[in-house]
Amino acid sequence: MTEGRSLHLTVTPHLANVSVRLYLKRGDKPRRIDEFDRNTTLPLPDDADLFTLSLGPTETMAADRWTWFIPGSDVDPKDPYRGKNFTLNYTLQIFSTQCLYFNEESEDFESDGCQPGPLSSAALSHCRCDHLTAFGSGFTFFIAPNKLNILETLRNLNPAENPVVIIAVSVLFGIYILVVIWARRKDRQDSKKIGATILRGDQGRFHDHFYQITVLTGSRSESSTSARVFLTLMGEGGTSGPHELEDRDRTILKEGGVDTFILPTSRHLGSLYAVHIWHDNTGPCPSWFLDKIILQDLSDGKKYSFLCQRWLAVEEGDGRVDCLLSSATDEQLSTLRHVFGSQTSKAFKDGHLWASVLGRPAYSPFTRVQRVSCCLSLLLCTMVTNIAFFRRENDFGPPPTIDILGFKVQIPISWAQFMIAVQSCLIIFPINLAIVEIFRHVASPPEKKAKDQCGSSASSITSDSDVVSLEEIELQKLDKAWDFYRQPYSDSKMTEEKKKGCILPWWCVFIAWFLVFASCVVSAFFTILYGQAYGRKKAEEWLFVFFTSFFADLFVLQPVKVVLLAVGLTLVLRKPHDDAENQTPTLDYEEVCAYLSSIKATPARECREEPPDSTKLAEMRVRRFVEISMRKALYEFAFYFLFVLVLVVIANGPRDTGMFHMTQHLRRTVDDGGDHSFTNATACKAV
Fold first, then answer.
1. How many C-beta atoms surround the C-beta of residue 156 within 10 A?
2. CB 251 within 8 A of CB 286
3. Which Gene3D superfamilies does its entry note (predicted)?
4. Is the predicted pLDDT of residue 172 greater than 90, yes or no?
5. pLDDT of 396 over the 80 cut
6. CB burial of residue 274 (10 Å; 0-12, 13-18, 19+)
7. Nearest-angstrom CA–CA distance, 206 and 266
8. Range list for CATH 2.60.60.20 in the chain
């Protein structure tokens, strides 16, 4: 053995509470017990778990003959083996260790000033150094996962004896199928929310200018409204008349919704400075939480933001159902409150993979079905890495203790735990990030070109008659508005947006689905194999530990991370990032055709709706509070009725039918009416 190395001999009895005496002789084989060079009792007195004997690092040992001897007469058993005949099996292991430090001058590892300590074992190296130079001993950069013999595990596969992991994986796939069915239904509902609705213009006037109105409803509970909503635009060049925000085909103004409308006006309103919006407080749930309104002048592309962030409801706040919103300045849009709310809302609705399954924006190309599939892939990949490294850190030593200002501080994480975390991230992160990014940035599949029915109908109108009517001019104006959506401002802007969005070819979605399928199948396969190899007890232990940590991370740590990330982005950027503002609405060609046809078929009618006055508001407020009180009373009645019903079932359900006869029998036995009856007892001695 080379200089600087220490030779260690470990004797591990297979029974607990047993001490043995070890004799060692170097060189010739001894004939008597007193010819051995060394003898010691294991475990050592300082540590009941230390069965390792250090033979010293001071000399250079050759391949000499060593004789070891453990006499049965020196075995010292404790309860329950004391005074009994028993067989003691033990394991003897010989290993050497060496402590090295990196010498920066020679750029090599050396052993000067470092000696192995007596606490060294096969899994842990104990080093004593007289300097603070970085050193290493038994350093392992890559932590291998637990061993798995695939062929042997498949041969010994027995789901009847160890069905835990198989049932868990099967339940996950079953839940996935049910959630996908729900997600597909929600995706179809979201597809109906996408698009821009063309509002009716002013009666009997030419419509030369068009404004895009984007209304963002809040995400609070019961933020949507069933009432009819109206608004009026106010600009430096004039005021538009009141217009109702309505759509007969789409579901609009719902909780967390982003609705887009196209408003034709008879003249250019100039720079917009205010919007007056209100509703008539009708329907079963008229209360509405309006987040903000974004207006865009389609003639020059200029945008205006109007912040509301309040309830328009008779039972909330000041009880009013109308408000006059002023155009927000850059300072108002950059306030911490607005930016933090925008960042947090976007993070939970679209950024957070799990939460976005419920709050996914309708305009996002990343569908709910795709999000649910990504969640399944992420969960199964996490499961396979977790079970592959389960309890692997126990094979390495605990983290060292460092001295800080005279206080001994235990490092909370060991090197093995750190490396296992890094390796797990390297396994899980790349493939799942690739899947999510492909789904987010893949282009829509090419659609079949629709026939230009609107253009042909408009041309036929003008050719049938030499007289040009107001409706015909209206058709031509709106046809120009449709050209705005068919062709963006310029080809350069389209190229810039394409680079910004990183659009991938539409067929890349098949690559993403293949990665989802492959990652799920491979992860589930190896998870089941590891579960079978571990045995039922260890598999149950892993399953409990995994899901406990997973749900704690999902419902506690990840929301905290999202909020902290939103705080960081708010402090650094101080600029709201709202995809709804940059989202170009989808105006279906058939909708434009239908609307253009309806202009000639039905003449426009003037909207004379006004906000309710104070008298009507007072009546609505009283009626609304009565409805809320009645609803609350019904909820309380139903709750207490169920509570009493459950209480009656619990109190009377588990009673045995023989309890009455048992009680009667005990009464007749103890209190039989004789001299020894309890009724005749006057003291404890009498009893």
1. 12
2. no
3. PLAT/LH2 domain
4. yes
5. no
6. middle
7. 5
8. 195-328+444-493+587-612
**Which residue intervals of 412-507 are DSSP H helices?**
415-441, 453-464, 470-486, 491-501
- Classify residue 258 by its DSSP letter: E
Q: How many CB atoms lie within 10 A of CB 464?
A: 9
Stated pTM of the model: 0.66
Token duo for residue 295: 């207006």
Does position 524 have pLDDT exceeding 60, yes or no?
yes
Q: What percent of the chain has pLDDT over 70?
A: 74
306: region left, alpha or beta (phi > 0 left; psi from -120 to 50 alpha): beta
DSSP-assigned letters across all residues of 3-65: TTEEEEEEEEESSSSEEEEEEEEESSPPSSGGG-SEEEEES-TT-TT--EEE--SSS---S--
| Main-chain dihedrals φ then ψ at residue 252, nearest 5 degrees | -120, 165
| DSSP per position, 484-518 | HHHS-S-HHHHHHHHHHHTPBPTTHHHHHHHHHHH
C-alpha separations of 510 from 86, 381, 454, 504, 513 in Å: 67, 20, 36, 12, 5
Confidence band, pLDDT 50/70/90 cuts, at residue 247: confident
Q: Which of 180, 240, 191, 252 is nearest to 216 (CA)?
A: 252
CA distance 42 to 35: 20
